[in-house]
Amino acid sequence: MDFSFPPEMVAFRRMVREFAEEEVRPLAATIDREDRVPWETIPKLRQAGLLGVPFPQKYGGAGLGEMGYCILLEEMGRVCTSTATFIGAHIGIGAMAIYLGGTEEQKQRYLVPLARGEKLAAFALTEPGAGSDAAAIRTRAVRDGDRYILNGTKIYITNGSFADIISVMAVTDPALGARGGVTAFIVEKEYPGYKVGTIEDKMGIRGSATAELIFDEVEVPAANVLGQVGLGFVTFMQSLDVGRVTLGAACLGGAETALEMAIRYARVREQFGRPLAHLQSVQFMVAEMAAEIEALRSLVYRTAWLVDTKQPFTKEAGMCKLLGSEIASRCVDRAMQIHGALGYSRDFPLERMLRDSRIAELFEGTNEIQRIVIATELFREAGVRIRP
Amino acid sequence: MRIAVCIKQILDPRAVRLSRSREAIDPRQAARIVNPPDRYALEAALRLRERHGGEVIALSVGARDVSDALREALAMGADRAILLSDEMLAGADASGVARALARAVEHIGDVSLVLTGERALDTGGGTLPARLAQELGWPVVTDASEPQLEDSILRAFQRDEKQRWSVSVALPAVLAVTRQREKPRYPPALRIAWAYREAEVETWDCDDLGLSPEEISARHTEERNLVMPPERNLGFILSGSPEEAARSLVAELRGKRLI
Amino acid sequence: MDFSLTEEQQMFRDLFAEFAAKEVAPQAAALDAEERPPLAALQKAAQQGFLGAPLPEAYGGAGLDMLGYTLLLEALGRACLSTAFTVHTHTGLAALTVLRHGTEEQKERYLPALAAGERTGAFALTEPEAGSDFGNLRTRARREGDSYVLDGTKTWVANGEIAGLFVIFACTEGGVTPFLIEREANGLTVGRRERTLGLRGLALNPLYLEGCRVLVESRLGAEGEGLAIARAAQDRGRLSVAAMSLGAAQATLDLGITFALQRKQFGVFIAEKQAIQNYLADSSAEIAALRHLVDSVAWKADQGGDYTQDAAIAKLFGSQVALRVANRMVQVHGGAGYMKDYPIERWFRDARALDIAEGPGLLQRAVIAREMLAEKGIAVVA
User: Fold this and answer.
1) B250: contact with C, CB 8 A cutoff
2) Closest C-alpha to B151, from B169, B136, B164, B126
3) CATH class for domain A234-381?
4) Domain range spanning residue B206?
5) For residue C353, what is the nearest residue in chain A, using CA coordinates?
6) Secondary structure of chain B in the HEC alphabet?
7) pLDDT tens-place string over residues A21-69
8) Residue C46 and residue C117 in contact, taking contact as beta carbons nearer than 8 Å
9) A268: chain B residues, CB-CB within 8 Å
10) Quick one: A339 exposed, middle or buried, by C-beta within 10 A (0-12, 13-18, 19+)?
């Protein structure tokens, strides 16, 4: 058992950290305040080859697998959750769906430009009536000759307002529902009838664009069916599983930053004649943060190893997301307690981190859903099929 | 054309700690990185290759682990990487290192330009480029930026606070590259995978270079004194409009009885 | 032991609730979005006699006791925390400090104006180096003949930019001493508003004192009485925050219940899912406990004894309940809980202040432990 990262991963982390510190961190507060996407960062991400990290080189990626991808999101999560969210939606669920479910032709046509960062991706599943209950989607895809006509509305889609290539879930057979009646499609933003609707005003990750997508008689070639007709959920759930591991990595990054800030402040801030670091309460808070971070780090990278060695990882992926999000929130909250009023001020990054970290327990499947996923796996291993 | 870039692996100066009690550097936390000015040199070399074709060869002197810096150079885009590694080189000073590098450049053959960063941020004497040029018998341009090539004439820019001027030199030449506004490129993730998994770093020792111990061991520099920098107090940051910031600054200074 | 409210208290409770629902709650979203203080609500509260309610009738008040005052703050906290803090700072911190420690002249000069809302009150204790450690003040008040000259900086002063009267704590030769200083005084400058995560409808400003000269008559109490005065205000403040927390927790629980009864997933209202029920149940239990705690501490305060430890307990417990309930209710809302279309995200941001304002949870614990151990004869340093 070797717990060290291979040399290329060490070198990759070093490069990503430098990129994150030089190019991403300086914009984090600005994009939050201005409520905009960091457009200027995207070409730089592209030039550094960071928009296709896990995909094999033959598809234009860097060939660094899930482990490299986790490193990327951990380092981005350290400095800017919005940017990490943008990357995660592009690579981890948008492009990933095509990588996991696409034909060779679809991969050459769509995955390659996405991996190279020449085009940007989104993943459209959620609808007003279908959040946790993803099976309740109503967007309809009707076959018409060599095409499908799509009608419906998707909401809360990350990167939705500007994505070039969108992986969309639609109902092809209402009678069959989730089991055999839902199909994944690759949609290009230029298709007539495809429209971007409202862009959400959110508590946090304000540098990430969350949009409503409207499909009004959108014609999608049959060649753009992703995976098999009726088996859309298989592809999408696989994608979501992979995405959850890296969300855990992004949360790890955020938690690490919260810990660093807490220690730094406790060293410097004096009350009652000595630094806060001498208060046992503060010491214990910091110790608990560090212990949780260690545990999360091991969980995330071990799960990345499971993914890269093609072992089952659904349960562990759910755990990465569940624990990652809750640990990140707790760590940021503790850091805020240690910083007192300063932590509440918008002139200091901590309140943004609090707002940004809150989303992790809500999206990519709420933590309640993660618990259901984990419990389902556990009981299935024990021979029982539970109903959520 | 063949361009050789001499790089050095150093401890990250931003992460190095000073132990005041022991009056020494505590390297524990510091990562090893490519000397930042050398990355500017590498970037300049890669741009010249992009314009005029040719080959960029990264060179470094050091122990086996220095190959890490060379792999980073490969990841950035260098075509070849050569490590000069020998016990005899371990104790060499700048003159010894310059001699070894010069010999390597000659050994490679057909090199028309040598680039290096203007100084190493750890020991920082800044004499290497000149010594190197001396060994090679080539001209040297120091504090240079934006090198451009026309036929066999190399043009580079130097500046002071007030002005900027160009210097032209015939190849072959040595150029000591200074920091510029445009940062060196990030090594693309794809090349990092290749550089660390598959690429080969060639290793040469003194025998390969035909260097004798006497040529290396002569010491021309001497360390006389080590001085700790003065302690710094933490500052504070003012925010608000200029009027408000000025007012709070004055209140602070008065409150601290400084004015 | 009678746990029911008297008829008069019930009347006040209903009155406060109606006012909060009609005049305060509808403004909450706008105050947050536009980051402005609730001036209109403040005036209306003054007209209704609420701002001066705890003052004796002689000064334009209604003689409302602490229990009644917590009913007011709970109602306001249930509608809008920014407004609740604005009123609490004005009434509970500023006005009641003048009432308890002022001379007759000071009371006659300021209390009617404060009750009528002609001047808004603020309370300036905190400094950059003195947060939890409020004994470590650097603002100086130098005696010069029949006046004092004040120099220093105060931070995080609630109501700063709307206040007409400040209670400002400074160090004199005799020790920490508060002063009553009007906005118009020379040498007093209100600085730029703090931008905060939540409570964006609460004005928070630094105060700069530079050669601010005030007459001796502005001094509140004797030199050196300041720490005792500050502690008394803190006790009131802690209980007040507990009451506001109670209101906020109830408000967010109500939002969660409403959402859970409207949102259907998996073919049923999410209220039928056990996970959601658990969140609602835990919240309900905590709120019930908090309500009894606030009532009993308010009753104890009205009996006249020392209630420092009880107030710290109420504040610690109350702020944590409000945070937990708000956090759970965001979770109940799912993705919608993150969108500004729904009010719950504002409550989440506002509630976060309840642990920090008026002494963070860590400080409350230190106070509680210290008092407990002091009873056993052990003196602990903070």
Assistant:
1) yes
2) B169
3) mainly alpha
4) 2-217
5) A344
6) CEEEEECCEEECCCCCEEECCCCEEECCCCCEEECHHHHHHHHHHHHHHHHHCCEEEEEEECCHHHHHHHHHHHHHCCCEEEEECCHHHHCCCHHHHHHHHHHHHHHHCCEEEEEEECCCCCCCCCCHHHHHHHHHCCCEEEEEEEEEEECCEEEEEEECCCCEEEEEEECCEEEEECCCCCCCCCCCHHHHHHHHHCCCCEEECHHHHCCCHHHHHCCCCCCCCCCCCCCCCCCCCCCCCHHHHHHHHHHHHHHCCCC
7) 999 999 999 999 999 999 999 999 999 999 999 999 999 999 999 999 9
8) yes
9) 234
10) buried
CA distance C236 to C96: 9
Contact A368 C345 (CB under 8 A): no
Distance from CA of B254 to the nearest CA of A (A): 21
B117 is a domain residue = yes
What would the CATH number be for the domain defined by A122-230?
2.40.110.10
Contact of B218 with chain A, judged by CB distance below 8 Å, is answered with no
Report the alpha-carbon distance of residue A262 to residue A265 in Å, rounded: 5
pLDDT mean over B54-71: 92
Q: Is the pLDDT of residue B231 over 70?
A: no
Alpha-carbon gap, residue C144 to C216, rounded angstroms: 9
Section A357-362 average pLDDT: 96
CB contact under 8 A, C189 and B247: yes
| CATH number at A7-120 | 1.10.540.10
Q: Which residues of C touch B252 (CB under 8 A)?
A: 153
Chains with 3 or more CB pairs under 8 A to chain A: B, C
Q: What is the pLDDT of residue A388?
A: 66
Nearest to A186 by CA among A59, A93, A98: A98
Question: Is the CB of residue A61 less than 8 Å away from at least one CB of chain B?
Answer: yes
Question: Would you call A192 helix, strand, or coil by DSSP?
Answer: coil
Q: Are A362 and C335 in contact (CB under 8 A)?
A: yes
**Active-site amino acid positions of C:** 358
Q: What ipTM does the predicted assembly reach?
A: 0.89
Q: What are chain C's domains?
A: 7-119 (1.10.540.10), 122-225 (2.40.110.10), 227-375 (1.20.140.10)
Neighbouring chains of C at 3+ CB pairs within 8 Å? A, B
The pTM of the full predicted model, rounded to 2 decimals, is 0.90
| Residues on chain B touching A61 (C-beta within 8 angstroms) | 190
Is the pLDDT at C43 greater than 90? The verdict is: yes
In a domain, B231, yes or no: no
> From the list A131, A272, A355, which residue is nearest C334 (CB)?
A131
Question: Does A7 reach chain B within 8 Å, measured CB to CB?
Answer: yes
Query: A8 to chain B: which residues are within 8 Å by CB?
Result: 192-193, 195-197
User: Per the structure, how many domains does chain B have?
Assistant: 1
Residues of B in contact with A264 (CB under 8 A): none
Domain membership flag for residue B77: yes
Query: Would you say residue B234 has pLDDT above 70?
Result: no
CATH of the domain at B51: 3.40.50.620
Residue B31 is assigned to a structural domain of this protein: yes
| Mean pLDDT rounded to a whole number for chain C | 95
CA distance C132 to chain A (A): 7
In chain A, CATH 1.20.140.10 sits at 234-381
Q: What is the pLDDT of residues C281-302, one digit of tens each?
A: 999 999 999 999 999 999 999 9
Whether the pLDDT of residue A104 is over 90: the answer is yes
Dist. CA A219–CA B160, nearest whole Å: 62
Catalytic residue list contains A200: no
